[in-house]
């Protein structure tokens, strides 16, 4: 006899954020959900109907709340589920959570556990779960749009289509192999080659937009660089609208890289304030300068600041798209070669600079594909590698058909890993660690 699976816990968690609020939503899912609702509300309402109920525990009234019940098979998790839309005060939420925790078979959910159950029940697939995690975490407009596309299956649909074509390609190759010594009815090589070429081209196109998509998800890095006292930290504070970095008239004030996260024209941006670039005998400042160079090199965009009479741009750090900014435009001094002029002290030109940064990043963001995670990119790169190997073996003719078929199988497998149809367990913990409680 197969071992009997242990009875599944019924899980509950607040689905809305902590703190004072008009309404808090608490979600409950699992086999004991109906019994729990019956005990709290005194009856079992019809599914998918919002009903007002007095919720009590041991004769004590806890809240008057809206309750919605979802039956197994017609809920997000696939299980019996109900939601309480109660009053949002922290004490009310605590009282409801305590009451739920005291009921038999109920326990607090782990982060992401509702979504995990939805995935296990086949209500959503791995890529949709990832999109959902991104949507819950989305802080800017570009992230919201991208996550919503992921959640609605943008990459999943494409990958499923590629997989189908590659399975056909492999079936064709294997059919020829089965005819080994007989007359092959038709030459299938042109169709197989065409299938491989078209899928390869589409994967290559998706991969070309991966870097931009990953940036939209994780944020673009923009580094402020320049000589000491160019006004980098003062500009950072002006852009962040808060005192994020120390500023002073002493050259070499900033040492560590200071990061400020912000929403710039709908795009997620991490601004980096860095140590002023110069030769220095001070070992700690020298470490700061080395760090500044490293981070500036890795950043998506560099803003080089030059104050009147200040040092010009270093030839080795700047790239064609970077911005040259003349700083402290309120001060007299010989004009320097620059894309624009700003004064962080008066605020002059700061908005123009923000717009220029936004334009440059928006141009890059426009090239984004639906390959939003490193996991997706690696799976597609692997698939593409096996596809080009398959194409090479196919070109060798009949004696290499079995190797070509094997390479086609491996590329299909890479797509299945992407889709979460194989090997999903391995990535689940990473994905669900990102979720907040109650999702
Ligand atoms: N007049 C004027 N002074 C400025 C402006 N921006 C910064 N300053 C002054 O210039 C000095 C240096 O500014 P910081 O922001 O510390 O310069 P920094 O580039 O971060 O310097 P390090 O961290 O030492 O590399 C401070 O005294 C600022 O008040 C500006 O737009 N106009
Ligand atoms: K300074
Ligand atoms: Mg500074």
From TrEMBL:
Q: Which PROSITE patterns match?
A: G_TRME (PS51709)
CDD domains, alphabetized: trmE, TrmE_N
Positions contributing to GTP binding: 229-234, 248-254, 273-276
Name the coenzymes or cofactors required. Answer: K(+)
Which one GO biological process term can you cite for this protein?
A: tRNA wobble uridine modification
Q: How is the cofactor bound?
A: Binds 1 potassium ion per subunit.
Q: Where in the cell is it found?
A: Cytoplasm
Task: Extract the HAMAP family matched here.
Answer: GTPase_MnmE
List the PANTHER family hit by this protein, alphabetically: TRNA MODIFICATION GTPASE GTPBP3, TRNA MODIFICATION GTPASE GTPBP3, MITOCHONDRIAL
Q: Which protein family is named in the record? A: Belongs to the TRAFAC class TrmE-Era-EngA-EngB-Septin-like GTPase superfamily. TrmE GTPase family.
Q: What is this protein called?
A: tRNA modification GTPase MnmE
């Amino acid at each position: 006899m197969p071992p009997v699976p242990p009875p599944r816990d019924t899980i509950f968690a607040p689905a809305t954020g902590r703190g004072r609020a008009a309404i808090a939503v608490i979600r409950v899912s699992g086999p004991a959900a109906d019994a729990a609702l019956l005990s709290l509300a005194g009856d079992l309402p019809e599914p998918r109907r919002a009903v007002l109920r007095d919720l009590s525990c041991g004769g004590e009234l806890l809240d008057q709340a809206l309750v919605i019940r979802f039956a197994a098979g017609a809920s997000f998790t696939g299980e019996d589920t109900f939601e309480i839309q109660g009053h949002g005060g922290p004490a009310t939420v605590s009282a409801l959570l305590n009451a739920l925790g005291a009921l038999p078979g109920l326990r607090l959910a782990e982060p992401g556990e509702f979504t995990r159950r939805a995935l296990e029940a086949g209500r959503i697939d791995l890529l949709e779960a990832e999109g959902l995690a991104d949507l819950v975490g989305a802080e800017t407009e570009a992230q919201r749009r991208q996550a919503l596309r992921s959640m609605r299956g943008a990459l999943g649909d494409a990958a499923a289509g590629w997989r189908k074509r590659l399975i056909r390609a492999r079936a064709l190759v294997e059919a020829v192999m089965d005819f080994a010594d007989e007359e092959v009815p038709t030459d299938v090589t042109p169709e197989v080659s065409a299938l491989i070429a078209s899928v390869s081209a589409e994967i290559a196109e998706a991969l070309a937009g991966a870097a931009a998509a990953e940036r939209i998800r994780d944020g673009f890095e923009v580094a402020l660089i320049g000589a000491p006292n160019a006004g980098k930290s003062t500009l950072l504070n002006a852009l962040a609208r808060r005192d994020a970095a120390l500023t002073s008239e002493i050259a070499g004030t900033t040492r560590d890289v200071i990061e400020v996260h912000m929403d710039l024209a709908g795009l997620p941006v991490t601004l980096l304030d860095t140590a002023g670039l110069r030769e220095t005998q001070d070992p700690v400042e020298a470490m700061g300068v080395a760090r500044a160079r490293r981070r500036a090199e890795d950043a998506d965009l560099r803003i080089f600041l030059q104050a009147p009479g200040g040092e010009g741009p270093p030839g080795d750090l700047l790239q064609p798209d970077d911005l040259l900014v003349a700083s402290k435009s309120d001060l007299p001094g010989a004009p320097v070669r620059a894309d624009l002029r700003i004064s962080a002290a008066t605020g002059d030109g700061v908005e123009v600079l923000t717009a220029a940064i936004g334009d440059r990043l928006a141009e890059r963001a426009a090239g984004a594909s639906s390959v939003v995670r490193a996991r997706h990119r690696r799976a597609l790169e692997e698939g593409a590698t096996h596809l080009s190997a398959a194409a090479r073996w196919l070109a060798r003719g009949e004696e290499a058909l079995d190797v070509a078929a094997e390479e086609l199988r491996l590329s299909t497998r890479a797509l299945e890993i992407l889709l979460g149809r194989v090997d999903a367990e391995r990535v689940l913990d990473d994905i669900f660690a990102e979720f907040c409680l109650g999702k």
